[in-house]
User: Fold these one by one.
Assistant:
Number 1:
Amino acid sequence: MDVFDKCSMNMGPLGQYADQTEGYFMFPKLEGEIGNKMLFKGKERLIWSLNNYLGLANHPEVRKADADAAAKYGMAYPMGARMMSGQSDLHEQLERELAAFVGREAAYLLNYGYQGMISVINSMVDRKDVIVYDSEAHACIIDGMRLHFGKRFVYPHNNIDNLEIQLRRASKMTEQTGGGILVITEGVYGMSGDLGKLDEIVALKKKFNFRLLVDDAHGFGTMGKTGAGTDEHFGVQKEVDLYFGTFAKSMAGIGGFIAGDKKVIKYLMYNMRSQIFAKSLPMPMVIGALKRLDLIRTRPEIREKLWTIVHALQNGLKEAGLDIGHTQSPVTPVMLSGGVGEATQITFDLREHYGIFCSIVSYPVVPKGVILLRLIPTASHTLDDVSYTIKAFKEVKEKLDNKVYSEKMAEV
Ligand SMILES: Cc1ncc(COP(=O)(O)O)c(C=O)c1O
């Protein structure tokens, strides 16, 4: 057997559909300036699929800061990994400002959120330690755990009674190994929009000895009174031991950071292999992130605009009889009943007839019979966008209930 045989015989769970889906459902190309309206296949569409929560991707001050930094430094500086030759005052300044913003002693930059998270987990635990994690944890958390030589226990999504059971098992185990326990949850779950129950999780610290790592990719910049994240929303910043944020969503950039106590961040600086052995973030990303952070801190009206759109969209969808699950964040899932065929027809209808572009998920990512359309409201949307979309979704649901899509499937 040739290792390349799988490329034609077994393309994997997503790749198996490549012939039917590529370019439309998967790897679609959105063109034009990033915003509420963009081009897809040459036509303007209303876009609800970008995690550009605060609309900073195309903010004039952000664009200028990025462009000026690129003109001054190019994309190469500083060369090398932070530890070897890629350190700079501005990298350190960004870390100080991020730490202060999220209420921690220190922070360290990560070149990509995904790899960074893998490395945070990998460096925080050894074979004596036990990880306890939520069953809906993001792929980067799962990959981080794959590098873990010790035990891990999973609790069903947000089931705190079960988390307690897993913590009891984990404590028994660490009594034998002499290790510690790391609990990992997300702040905002990116598909369903519900929040990790950080208040209930930290309450368990009274009964069990563990450290808590929160992946707040979707919460940083959107949640909490100042936008400092889901732990600020719950008022538990002191009890969340390690806080992870990415620049890829609210900050509309690339990279991320981990924040916590000074001594822990120092330890991570010297142990995170994905950062020690990889090139440092280029200067335009660092200067661009400083600008974005400044806007998040000083222009609360941007976040207020986001939440105006979120509330209008979520209340309107609910009033129109649509099921948006239990979201408590900007992430807005719309749940419909149907199979892959109906999901395909709905996507065509939304994109081609209504000019609405959103992400769609069907079996096997969600249970059989469920279609999840995910809308990401942003500060760059308007209330007109919202009312148009609510009307469209109401009509789509009526068509689904009246079997219009299953009849279309029969015609194909
Ligand atoms: C929950 C969560 N964690 C981590 C990441 C990875 O972040 P990045 O895109 O910065 O690599 C994502 C991005 O999709 C995410 O949703």
Number 2:
Amino acid sequence: MEKRLMHAVQYNAYGGGSNALKHVEVPIPIPSKDEVLIKLEAASINPLDWKIQKGTLWPILPTKFPYIPCVDVAGEVMEVGKGVTKFKVGDKVVGSMSPFSGGGLAEFAVVKESVTVSRPPKMSASEFAGLPVAGITALQALSQSIGIKLDGSGERKNILITAASGGVGHYAVQLAKLGNTHVTATCGARNMELVKSLGADEVIDYKTPDGAALKSPSGKKYDAVIHCANDFPWSIFEPNLSMNGKVVDISPTPGSVMSFALKKLTFPKKQLVPLFLLPNCRDLQYLVDLVKQGKLTTVIDSKYPITKAEDGWARSIDGHATGKIIFEF
Ligand SMILES: NC(=O)c1ccc[n+]([C@@H]2O[C@H](COP(=O)([O-])OP(=O)(O)OC[C@H]3O[C@@H](n4cnc5c(N)ncnc54)[C@H](OP(=O)(O)O)[C@@H]3O)[C@@H](O)[C@H]2O)c1
């Protein structure tokens, strides 16, 4: 039988950035027993996607070329695998694909039922497509790594969120304010009003001397830092932390982990906690419900049709997105 084809964007080797993306026609994937086939309405890009292309995760990812990137997807269920019980054809969903399979920058994608959740059918897919990687990372950093209770109970904590204008940071500010927290946030001058409007109590311009030093304007010491910016030495964090202060580093490198581990000998109660996202339905559904209730918003930096995928890819590599970059289909 002739295979049905779809438009997809893929690359064939490491490197090359947006120029290496190729528009191709490939067979529509077939869902296995525990998967659903989704006709995509929106997908979002994360720095992970272009870091994989750059070879940052070599030799683990990609497992083979050609590789269709992107893992955050939202759309409509077209077909369900034999073992799928939660979904039926026509359901509107959001899902988190594995970076091992990739496949989100295409008209159709197959996603495991275990990391797919329903979303409100009348709300735009773009509102939800940013949640899987960035939203779950922000949620896990706050609730699991730091222990913030997002129902507002729990003892008050001073939190610093760096790069609060980015994909992870803008969700982290909003989620942190559901808990009993005082939030200090760093971002560029152009985004300070936005980050305040998301709930931050204090905002610092990261290009000023105080911003670069991560100093709270009110002189607060941080009980926890959700560190979404890159490459800060321990010597910057240390003087700003409370006695048992914790830095949750969402972009840990072997070098930074080693350096923090050595410093920990000197400041044993202050800690670095590397975070590696673990996608799951419970966290994704929690975030979808918050969006539905109007308690969490996806700030959309820009939207690109799949025909202009290169532009969205280049925008993400540039590192200056405010909120999420979305592809629409
Ligand atoms: N561990 C995990 O599982 C995991 C999961 C998700 C993400 N990550 C990693 O987390 C990092 C952040 O991801 P993201 O999606 O939030 O990135 P993003 O959306 O690309 O971040 C861009 C934003 O960061 C701001 N920014 C850059 N440097 C800054 C600094 N020094 N201080 C304050 N703001 C700064 C930029 O502001 P300006 O435009 O004003 O410069 C821009 O608004 C990436 O390295 C990503 O790979 C890890």
